[in-house]
Q: What sequence folds into this?
């Protein structure tokens, strides 16, 4: 069953035009989905790791990917640098609504839960721009390759959302109160089917979480690490 889900997920991802052109690399990238450098008996070669991807490299990669889409209505809203990756928001110019979220991992190999507990192991090389796991792929009702019924996603209209921004912020704060000390919800970005909030701890950005706009489900983005800096592009 697990293997079937992975295969379906990969096929759906590559079949969706928005996520099909992901081969934007920096000079040290090994390639999306390529295996780590393993030696005899499965041991990894002790070669020096490449230098981490820089913010300037991430900005260039994010812009190249935007250009590759050929959609003049999409733009980059912001890039946030975290300990493990760069997080990029793309949005629609005409509506102001967030379109989708992407990640660029700083170093490879990266092993992680691609889907927030779905049990699907993922590998992404440094410098490669990939869709962010979690709400971006599971809840996005317009841009996700899973939106047409795959993995339980329905093609719902934005006008049908049951939860307002204010209610989503309240649900997010309730989650933070139960799981963090001195945490506070900050600004939200509305996407199709969900909201993503930054949050602070003791006044400093500490992470983000998303609220499903139809069910109120909370999803903590647990794969970023410590916040470093943020750049707003548009």
A:
């Amino acid at each position: 069953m697990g293997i079937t889900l992975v295969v379906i997920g990969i096929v759906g991802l590559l079949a969706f035009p928005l996520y099909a052109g992901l081969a934007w690399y920096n000079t040290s990238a090994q390639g999306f989905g390529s295996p780590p450098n393993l030696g005899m008996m499965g041991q990894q070669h002790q070669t020096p790791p490449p230098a981490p991807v820089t913010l300037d490299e991430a900005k260039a990669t994010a812009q190249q990917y935007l250009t590759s889409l050929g959609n003049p209505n999409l733009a980059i809203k912001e890039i946030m640098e975290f300990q493990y990756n760069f997080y990029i928001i793309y949005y629609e110019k005409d509506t102001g609504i967030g379109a989708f979220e992407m990640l660029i991992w700083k170093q490879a190999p990266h092993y992680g839960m691609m889907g927030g507990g779905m049990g699907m192991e993922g590998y992404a090389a440094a410098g490669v721009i990939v869709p962010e796991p979690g709400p971006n792929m599971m809840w996005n009702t317009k841009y996700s390759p899973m939106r047409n019924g795959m993995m339980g996603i329905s093609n719902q209209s934005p006008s049908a959302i049951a939860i307002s921004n204010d209610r989503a912020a309240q649900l997010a704060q309730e989650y933070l109160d139960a799981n963090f000390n001195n945490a506070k919800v900050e600004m939200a970005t509305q996407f199709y089917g969900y909201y993503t909030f930054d949050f602070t701890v003791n006044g400093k950005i500490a992470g983000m979480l998303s609220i499903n706009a139809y069910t109120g489900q909370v999803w903590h983005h647990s794969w970023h690490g410590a916040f470093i800096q943020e750049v707003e592009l548009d």
DSSP finds five helices and eleven strands in the chain. Residues 156-222 form a domain with the Nuclear Transport Factor 2; Chain: A, fold (CATH 3.10.450).
